[in-house]
Amino acid sequence: MSGWDDKPQIIGYKQQRPTVAKGSALNSAQRSGLVVSSESKGAGQTKGPADHQRIAKLDRDDAPKPPEKIGQDVGKAVATARMAIKNAEGKSMTQKELATAVNAQPSAITDLEAGRAVPDQQLLSKLERKLNVKLRGAKNTIGGPLHPPKKK
Where is the region Disordered (predicted)? Predict the structure, then answer.
């Protein structure tokens, strides 16, 4: 085939597109032999779950993880060290007194002792110095003295 039988392309001429017909108009157009398309223009996804469901599942999987909490061993170490410190009347130190001593909120001390607090290195260092107890580092050293006696 040399291309003599092909329809010539005319520049600037829009090719006629088939019209979309529905119902009885479609049937009559097909009987008369006209070029008719029965598909709808711009139809999206018709079968299966919607795309937003897949994206929502991905969002749930990629959600940022909540920050790590202080361990229960740190909370117990703070509570026991706080109780060991006695005031002039012989009573143990309260959470409010400890919070005032380290310039923190009383709720921060409560959350720390309950194991609900997010690690705050600045607060932990202040508590270590005030209570003279190690609160950071290896798990087996937490609760021990901050400055153990030197080995000879």
Answer: 1-75
